[in-house]
Amino acid sequence: MQSKRQKQFYDKCSMLGFNIDKQYYWYHTINLGNELITPGVFDFRGNIAKYFFLENMHGVSILDVGAATGFFSFEFARRGAMVTATELPSLLELDTFPGQNIKDVLNKATKHASGYVYQKPEQLDSELLYKLLLLEPFTFCNQHLELKIPRRFVNIYNFSEETLGQPAFDWVFIGDVLLHTIDPFKALASAAKMCSNTLVIAQHISDSPDDRPLMLYIGGDNLEDDVSAWWRPNLSWFQHVLKKLGFRSIEVVGGFNDKYLPNGNSESKTVIHARR
Ligand SMILES: C[S@@+](CC[C@H](N)C(=O)[O-])C[C@H]1O[C@@H](n2cnc3c(N)ncnc32)[C@H](O)[C@@H]1O
Question: Is the pTM of this model over 0.85?
């Protein structure tokens, strides 16, 4: 069933004469102007200051890793940055637990997503789901905001000059992506090598009883568990690994409780800046 926010969005789209597929999954809440606001399941607008991005990003290149609906990419562009947004090339590239079949994982994701995209699970294959979840909502906003942010469809493990079109970016932003990687070392190292100045990581991190660098495993103990999330490192893990990856200063600059709007559940998110 459509929520009130979703209905308002699509009613407004019709009023403005936009041809929009009503089945998109909106991850981010994005103000597109003319009182048109995407009905995202997260709304980071009130907490954007807690990421401590530069107010003026003119002349700054930034890589938005796993941009999803693109809220952060659009914000960077508004501040004047040269933005490149990345996304997975296909849902079939999502990490799985060894022995787990990606098709089974996607079947589960499909059932979950069908509640948001008003489509019966059996009508959603991985290609359609990809289109409705990741490909087209960003494109819609990019066009509507009259931005031409380039997108690169590359798995985080495969970042390189060749796949991203330039040798490095001044800033690299990794918001809630590492938890979806089964090998966060490899993923973080791959993204870090593309960063020449400041790497921003924003995600839930594990509380720690002491200063040892630890990662909490959150993938469950059977193949049926929802395993789209694997690891939750603690701050000391980030400090050690980022130092080893060549960052001189690693600092927690902010944090806030982010709320999953459909059920109101919230968790604390930490924002880390690592500088070369
Ligand atoms: C939870 S969303 C986070 C969206 C946004 N970065 C934010 O901070 O709000 C995770 C994003 O990472 C992408 N993603 C998941 N696994 C990935 C991988 N292995 N390589 C690149 N992107 C990945 C997803 O498709 C999605 O766009």
Answer: yes
Does residue 117 carry a pLDDT above 80?
Answer: no
Alpha helices in 136-234 (DSSP H): 136-144, 161-164, 184-192
Nearest CA to ligand 1 atom 10: 177
Q: Judge contact between 272 and 251, C-beta under 8 A.
A: yes
Instruction: Note the pLDDT tens digit of each residue in 128-139.
Output: 889 988 999 999
Domain definitions of the chain by residue range: 44-275
Q: At 50, which amino acid appears?
A: K
Residue nearest to atom 24 of ligand 1 (CA): 66
Minimum-distance ligand 1 atom for the alpha carbon of 175: 8
CATH class of the domain at 44-275: alpha beta
Which residue owns the Cα nearest ligand 1 atom 8? 175
What is the pLDDT at residue 256? Answer: 95
* CB atoms closer than 10 angstroms to residue 220: 13
d(Cα 246, Cα 80) in Å, to the nearest integer? 28
Helix then strand then coil, in percent of the chain rounded to 5, is: 35, 25, 40
Q: How far apart are CA 172 and CA 194, in angstroms?
A: 7
**Residue where the block lists tokens 């090998």:** 183
Whole-angstrom CA distances from 272 to 37, 86, 209, 235, 255 are 28, 20, 20, 9, 9
Beta strand 265-275 with 249-260 is: antiparallel
| Residues 6+ positions from 46 with CB-CB distance below 8 Å | none
